[in-house]
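FAQ: What does a ligand-bound record look like?

Like this one, built around flavin-adenine dinucleotide:
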Amino acid sequence: MDFSLTTEERQIRDTVRSFVEKEVMPLEPEVLRNEREGRPALDADVLRDLRAKARKSGFWGINTPEEYGGAALGPIMSAIIAMELGRTFVPFSFGGSADNILYAGTDEQKRRYLIPTIEGERRSCFAITEPGAGSDARNIRTRAVRDGAEWIVNGEKTFITGGNEADFVMVFAVAEPYGVTCFLVDRDMGWRSEPIPTMGQWGPASLVFEDVRVPEENVLGEPGRGFELAMEWIGQGRYMIPARAIGSAERMLQMAVDYATIRKSMGRAIAEYQAIQWMIADSQVEIEAAKWLTLYAAWRVREGLDARHASSIAKLNGAVMANQVVDRVLQIHGGMGYTKELPIERWYRELRLLRIFEGTDEIQRRTIARNLIKGHARLGLIGE
Ligand SMILES: Cc1cc2nc3c(=O)[nH]c(=O)nc-3n(C[C@H](O)[C@H](O)[C@H](O)COP(=O)(O)OP(=O)(O)OC[C@H]3O[C@@H](n4cnc5c(N)ncnc54)[C@H](O)[C@@H]3O)c2cc1C
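The answer part, i.e. the structure of the complex:
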């Protein structure tokens, strides 16, 4: 069993870490200011410049195949890079990537949707959730009815990340008589979006489709195979969610350690009290556990093994870990932790989402338990 990184992998991690420290973290005060004054976290120009700088350093298309100009660094490096990016709350990711399911498109769909998304010229969003169907995604009601060479789509989607900014949507609708089908629908084909205010900075949207006409050639994959595509989209990102959270938790824990050594109470640094030490110790234990579960899930993806069970475990554990760590870090900071002078409260609000989206804690537990009960997963395995 080899836990080490190659020299090249270590170099990549160190270069990303120094990019994040030098180029991204200095933007933190600006992000807090912008968000608190109701503006987007980063100005579009600032984001564009940052992505261009990253691209110059080779950080572009981290997990995009080389034939599309990407770096194709693979799942493990993608997870490690996400951990590094998670060290800052600046909502930044390297450019040059596109939703995995767009690779399932026809050559023409790749030309119109996949490649412009990789190039950053177009923005996608993924829409399956509806007001009446979240965890119960098989129960979606959005309908597509064929009319000659077109489909007419009617329905409403909710909580769609990037739905206000996207210029096309991968939308899932029941297409009679086939069943759930994925359609690529440009905004100018007629769907509308409305922002949904949330407790975090993550601003999703509701999308409304009223007699939106979609040409036949905009069906992604085969009619009736949409649910599989949706699960493929969700499955791909599952281990990336805890990966980013690990970076955030480590950065915050370091803040707590630093603060505990300088903050005095009753004549001593609070770091000397066992109550504080236990919070610090428990946090590191949980972060380390999350790190290895996440890398194990990424390893399974890299090896072409079924990673669904491992990813559910990593996602559930990582989401819970991040929320426990941020809560302890806030507690160690006392009243200061609750103020807007420090970013802890912002992280607290943002990380809460991890227990909800892309499969709630309860749905992950349901999946894990059912896999064991039905024999799809077995106990006692190592590295198989
Ligand atoms: C900020 C944000 C961004 C999002 N982005 C997207 C996006 O880009 N695209 C998209 O399609 N969706 C997106 N979602 C939707 C998200 O995936 C759903 O909110 C999530 O799947 C839960 O569905 P729900 O909100 O309808 O809750 P419900 O499914 O109604 O669940 C309510 C509660 O019941 C529990 N529950 C439900 N079923 C069971 C069960 N069988 N057993 C035990 N407990 C159960 C849940 O765990 C939860 O605690 C986003 C959500 C948020 C908040």
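Follow-up question: can I read anything off the structure? Yes, for example: The beta strands are 124-127, 143-147, 150-160, 168-175, 179-186, 192-195, 205-215, 219-220, 264-265, 268-269.
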